[in-house]
Amino acid sequence: MKKFLGVLVLFLCGGVFSAYGQPGKISGYMFGDYYYMAASHKSNLKGQNGFRLRRIYFTYDKELGSRFDTRLRLEMNSAGHFTGKSKLVPSVKDAYLRWKKNGQQIILGISSTPTWDVIEKVWGYRSVEKTALDLQKIGSSRGFGLAVKGNLLADGTVKYHLMLANGTGTQPEANKEKKILGSIGFYPNRSIIIELYGDFERQPGSHDVYTLQAFAAYKTNRGRIGVQFAHQTRGAAGSPKLEVASIFGAVRLSGKVNFFARIDKMFEPNPNGAAIAYIPFDPGARSLFAVTGLDFIPAGNIHFMPNVELVSYEANASGQKPGRDLIPRVTFYYKF
User: Fold this and answer.
1) pLDDT over 70 (residue 14)
2) Per-residue DSSP letters for 302-330?
3) pTM of the prediction?
């Protein structure tokens, strides 16, 4: 009942705001799959299959005068594990007040971080799979704090995005330390993007975390290709480091059919791999992840995407090589 009332309040707020100015905008999207675990390094998951909704967005945007606007976005996800009977639970994804003028923005609240915001847009298939850092839990898509972003040059060829945040994503702050994130992007023409990113998060004790990332992309009307490399150091000297490289691309085969593919290489085992939603990784072995598929577009906002994900592993510290993960899927995506 509380969840239903929360959504009802959102609708009512839209009506109230509309009565005192220009109406706001309600939008959203949904995506999910029918999946089949054809193979898995976890024997209990082999043969698992079913329908699932991996994400639902419900968004309300409202202009608050000539310089200010606000956004409230709710998110719901199916449980990313393969046990239990958890229901879809809504949570706040975005909640911010934004000031904007002459290509500059100041954002207060929960908003997107610069970690993979640009990369996800170029990849274009978040509905199929998260980008590499997102998938491997090397960062967060959201930060609660203060952000500034915009054009460093008036012609838009150099852009920046800086943020001071709690470092806990959308969760409450748990300590007095903060996280600093920043990116600078170069757009010399309509086809080329080069972006450099870094963050630093101070944590209690000697467990500070910093991340460095480089990204480059080339886009045309027919398709796009992107390459990224990221390095993260966790904790004191001698602690495990994570490095990942990713290359992806998409090409338009016809007006209503696209082809896409991606390969990620983890150069070190991810100790958090077993907690990765929908496709748990072995936490003790280096991995190679690949996904490829077709995107059929019967209407502008509707996509059906048969695809397959594959994870192969190197031998772990004990000399044992985990079995591969193979997941054929039919993914659907639509927005409103």
Assistant:
1) no
2) EEEEEEEEEEEE---TTS--PPPEEEEEE
3) 0.90
